[in-house]
């Protein structure tokens, strides 16, 4: 169904150059559409933010403009963390059709592309985190070339939006490309973006201020709000893989970063998340504030969501390592990151066995 959209790679496309990782496509119509779409979204946010700066310096702004900013920031923060990330990417809980549509719309109000693309790309990130194939690693680019520290941070932050690789929906879009709510959100993504950036702030200005507040509220509570938050989401990709602590060191550079966690309502506990990607909660200790996790718990109590996935509890052993509370006698086994299941489209990274005792990730993906 999703291939009916022009921005999704057509089945007939044959890339001239094959990517070394299965499920990553080089070039083609989808890569061009990706650059155009992200170019429009990012440039509108940047120009709107510059306009917000000018407006703030030359006009009196007050609670109308900044309350719109704050309310919108909370809304899209929930949308990205709960909608894009924990539900559509990782299936951390279940919800009915109306709830799925609501959190999909809320996510796309952040103007970070459609649920379909965001979730598929993020599944690819988990498939090859900080290895060849990762969509936004600060260590290697989209083609697997190593980068310097500062160039890598730039590529992981915004540069990856404009490379010529795309995620194969047949691999990373499982459970998405045939989901009616996902496809509805994808089809209406530009309308949702316009509503979020312009219409919603204008209505807010008229409700709580007057016509004289419309321009300022659109600039501050629309475009600047989206750009401000976007930098923290991208910061988890870049800063969150370089700066911070690791409770579970090993396979990738993911970090727990308290500042990023505060600004993203919990997603900055990134090392925790990479250890247990299907968990609805990124914070694992009481001091790791995870607002989106608390909201999911509230929704669960209200009956809006169910089958909420939870990570096991961890404690420190005698050597200071973090181990699962009920598996102190099996520390090494418990420190292996969990595999994302085929059922959630997420991958399938348990290497299958061949005659020599191991098989490539590509072979495992092919079987999936």
In short:
With 368 residues, the protein is mainly α. It has one domain (2-356, 360-367). The protein contains 14 helices and 6 strands.
If you had to describe this structure to a student in words, what would you say it looks like?
48% of the residues are buried. The longest helix has 30 residues, at 29-58. The strands form three sheets. This protein has a two-stranded antiparallel ribbon. Helix 2 (63-89) crosses helix 4. The chain is built from 14 helices and six strands. With 368 residues, it is mainly α. Mean pLDDT is 88; it is low at 341-368. It has one domain (2-356, 360-367).
Summarize this structure as a short list of keywords or feature phrases.
single chain; 368 residues; mainly alpha; two-stranded antiparallel sheet; 6 strands; 49% helix; globular; transmembrane helix; Acyl-CoA desaturase; oxidoreductase activity, acting on paired donors, with oxidation of a pair of donors resulting in the reduction of molecular oxygen to two molecules of water
Q: How many individual domains? A: 1
Give a count of the beta strands, DSSP E runs of length 2 or more.
Answer: 6
Q: What is the gyration radius calculated from CA atoms?
A: 21 Å
- Describe the sheet with the most strands: 2 strands, antiparallel
Helix content: 40-55%
Mean of all residue-level pLDDT scores: 88
Low-confidence stretches: 341-368
What percent of residues are in strands? Answer: under 5%
The helix-and-strand class reads: mainly alpha
The SSE string, one letter per element, is EHHEHHHEHHHHHHHEEEHH
How far from one another are the termini?
A: 20 Å
Taken from the alpha-carbon principal axes, the silhouette is globular
The strand order across the widest sheet is 1-3
> Number of DSSP helices?
14
Biased composition (Polar residues): 355-368
Biased composition (Basic and acidic residues): 328-338
GO molecular function, one term: oxidoreductase activity, acting on paired donors, with oxidation of a pair of donors resulting in the reduction of molecular oxygen to two molecules of water
Organism: Parasphingorhabdus halotolerans
């Amino acid at each position: 169904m999703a291939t009916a959209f022009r921005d999704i790679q057509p089945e007939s496309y044959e890339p001239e150059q094959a990517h070394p990782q299965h499920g990553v496509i080089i070039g083609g119509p989808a890569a061009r559409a990706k650059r155009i779409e992200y170019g429009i979204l990012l440039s509108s946010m940047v120009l709107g933010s510059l306009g917000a700066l000018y407006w703030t310096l030359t006009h009196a702004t007050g609670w109308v403009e900044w309350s719109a900013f704050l309310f919108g920031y909370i809304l899209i923060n929930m949308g990205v963390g709960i909608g894009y990330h924990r539900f559509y990417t990782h299936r951390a809980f279940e919800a009915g059709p109306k709830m799925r549509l609501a959190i999909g719309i809320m996510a796309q109000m952040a103007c970070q592309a459609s649920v379909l693309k965001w979730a598929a790309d993020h599944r690819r990130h988990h498939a090859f985190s900080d290895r060849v194939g990762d969509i936004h690693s600060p260590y290697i680019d989209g083609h697997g070339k190593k980068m310097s520290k500062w160039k890598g941070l730039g590529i992981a932050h915004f540069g990856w939006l404009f490379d010529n690789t795309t995620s194969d929906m047949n691999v990373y879009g499982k459970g998405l490309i045939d989901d009616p709510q996902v496809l509805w959100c994808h089809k209406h993504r530009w309308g949702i973006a316009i509503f979020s950036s312009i219409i919603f702030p204008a209505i807010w200005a008229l409700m709580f201020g007057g016509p004289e507040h419309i321009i300022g509220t659109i600039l501050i509570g629309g475009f600047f709000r989206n750009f401000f938050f976007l930098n923290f989401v991208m910061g988890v990709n870049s800063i969150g893989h370089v700066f911070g602590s690791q409770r579970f060191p090993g396979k990738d550079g993911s970090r727990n970063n308290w500042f990023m966690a505060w600004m993203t309502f919990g997603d900055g506990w990134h090392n925790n998340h990479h250890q247990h990607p299907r968990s609805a909660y990124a914070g694992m200790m009481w001091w790791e504030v995870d607002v989106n996790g608390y909201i999911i718990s509230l929704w669960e109590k209200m009956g809006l969501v169910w089958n909420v996935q939870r990570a096991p509890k961890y404690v420190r052993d005698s050597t200071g390592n973090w181990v699962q509370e009920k598996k102190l006698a099996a520390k090494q086994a418990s420190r292996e990151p969990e595999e994302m299941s085929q059922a959630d489209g997420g991958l399938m990274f348990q290497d299958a066995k061949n005659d020599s005792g191991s098989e490539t990730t590509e072979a495992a993906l092919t079987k999936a």
